[in-house]
Amino acid sequence: MVNNRICIKTEGLTKTFGSVQAVKELDLEVKSGSRFGFLGPNGAGKTTTVRILSGLLKQTSGTGTVCGYDVSTQRNSIKAVTGLLPETPGLYSKLSAVEFLEFIGALNGRNGDSLHQRIDRLLAILGLEGRQDDLLESYSSGMKQKVLMASTLLHDPQLVFLDEPTSRLDPAASALVKDLILLLAEENETSFFICTHITSFAEDVCDVIGIINEGQLVIVDSPQQIIESTKTRDLEEAYLKIIGGKVDRQTLLTWR
């Protein structure tokens, strides 16, 4: 069932809410093993796309497959082989990291020695083995994000969706998340689909970038190719040029 070369493929994928077209005829291919960055401003259609691809939401029209499974008819199969970390996940702060992960494992039908071996391995990779029995309420924001990442990876997914993984995090915690993604991609050969509007994060982490604006996919390429094709200095400048963003520096100076 699994396509070893392409983990996501969509053709004409569209989602409409009333008169609002959140995603417009999305044609996209994401290779297995890649770290795909999905950039766009707030309201561009990133989260809607992720909800469709992760099996939480049905599209209005168009087709798509994720890890070889149809987004229209095999959504439960998609959920079984993918992980999703939403922008505003919940944590049970009165549980320890181990207890929380045991709970998540039980929700996914996992228990026993295999679950505990998986928990121990993830906590070791994440550098939390010395704090695994402390209550989550005592954790820093970066440590909590590590536990949430562990919960997303607990069932060893082929593909992980991350929706704004550094939102609400300070720069140090954001750097931890970046290093974590790179480590897990190398250690577990996990594919990542990362929604973000933070271009510096995407440039550091992702090997392929797709930019979406007002529901439409504008460009898909490597960060360097996007920079070169737009004749800009970095991904932030290229992103602003592509979506039409502009900073009026003269106006900013008059505010001083």
Could you describe the 3D structure shown?
The protein is an alpha/beta fold and 256 residues long. It has a domain at 6-87 and 159-254: P-loop containing nucleotide triphosphate hydrolases (Rossmann fold). The protein is built from ten helices and ten strands. The protein has helices at 46-53, 75-81, 97-107, 112-125, 141-153, 171-188, 199-205, 223-229, 235-243, 249-254, and strands spanning 6-17, 20-31, 35-39, 61-66, 69-70, 82-85, 159-163, 191-196, 208-213, 216-221. Residues 247-256 have low confidence and may be disordered.
Attribute tags:
single chain, 256 residues, 4-stranded antiparallel sheet, 10 helices, 6-stranded mixed sheet, 39% helix
Number of strands: 10
Low-confidence stretches: 247-256
Query: In whole angstroms, how far apart are the ends?
Result: 60 Å
Which sheet architecture does the biggest sheet show? 6 strands, mixed
CATH superfamily of the domain at 6-87 and 159-254: P-loop containing nucleotide triphosphate hydrolases
